Amino acid sequence: MRYSRIAATGSYVPERVLTNFDLEKMIDTSDEWILTRTGISERRLSRDDEDTSDLAERASREAMEAMGIAPEDLDLIMVATITPTMPLPSTACFLQDKLQARRAAAFDIAAACSGFIYGLSIADSFIRTGTYHTILLVGSEALSKIVDWTDRNTCVLFGDGAGAVIIAPTEGESRIISTHLYSNGSYWDLLMQPGGGSRYPISPEIIEKNLHKIKMMSGNEVFKIATRAMEDAAISALKHNGLEPSDVDLLIAHQANHRIIRAVAQRLRLPEKNVFSNIAKCGNTSAASIPIALDEAVRSGRVKEGDLLLLAAFGAGLTWGSAVIRW
Ligand code: UT7
Q1: I want to staple 319 with a disulfide (CB 3.0 to 4.6 A). Which of 114, 154, 164, 325 is the partner?
Q2: Which fold has domain 3-172?
Q3: For the structural domain made of 177-326, what CATH number should be given?
Q4: Residue closest by Cα to atom 18 of ligand 1
Q5: What is the pLDDT of residues 225-274, one digit of tens each?
């Protein structure tokens, strides 16, 4: 039986650090509020001349180096992002060009913060069916470029960065065991970037109203739905595979809020040592958050061969999902 596995990981976060103390000078907020409500101390910001495909390239090259493959070995490139380099063409095509991955098909995934789990599911299916052999999946975001830096409800939350994985076939035990995807479009207006699409095309009026920036209508409602959705997705994934929470060696959840991550961990009765978090340093990097965290966990030795990983994500759409992986 042909399965898929994550054969290598890589990540990149920009050099520029924006701390909570820096934000105190920009808006009416405090380090204490941000830290206690979200767990975030600082986040990374891309340079003016650095876009989502640049971040993706750095993470991708690291993953390819870890696996010892060349860009020509890639069959497919997927980039999960809500901050594409341009609305058209896809960021995956920019990345294909930057890498000179001439054989690879390329497209973007628009599933917001759940984009990496969606991509994992697509890659797993393509590999199981034999359609593709070597797939590069990147979550990459330059959220600082669509954040409204005058809106304290959102600007303290987000950061920039990219995480990449290479997914390849296997017949062994180390593999992607399952993925579960969910969405509920009736909540589309909770978290959005209203301007710049076909409903509100870019115009001086849209820009004047700041509609081309991220809006979160009720952070608290998003918080409650996110917590319940990730808990349910995680539990369904374990049940589907006949696994118990005690089988989980590491939970890597979307890094949106440390209180959400803690709530999911508590519902699963997972001790802190089995929960990965880098939100303090990175903030919420949307589609990049899980692959950046995964790469950090792998490189720091938190993930060892044979470990059972549970991934859970949640984001605008609303979208959410989970994945179970034997490393
Ligand atoms: O990645 C996609 C999914 N996104 C999420 O999952 C985000 C989910 N939501 C959250 O993480 C939390 O709801 C937030 C961190 C956004 C907000 O935390 P909260 O505990 O839900 O606070 P709240 O929205 O209920 O706001 C409490 C108060 C409000 O003041 P009043 O109305 O009580 O006077 C806000 O105006 O905190 C105020 N506030 C702030 N104060 C200082 C909101 N933002 C800030 C801020 N600094 N940056």
Answers
A1: 114
A2: Peroxisomal Thiolase; Chain A, domain 1 (3.40.47)
A3: 3.40.47.10
A4: 37
A5: 999 999 999 999 999 999 999 999 999 999 999 999 999 999 999 999 99
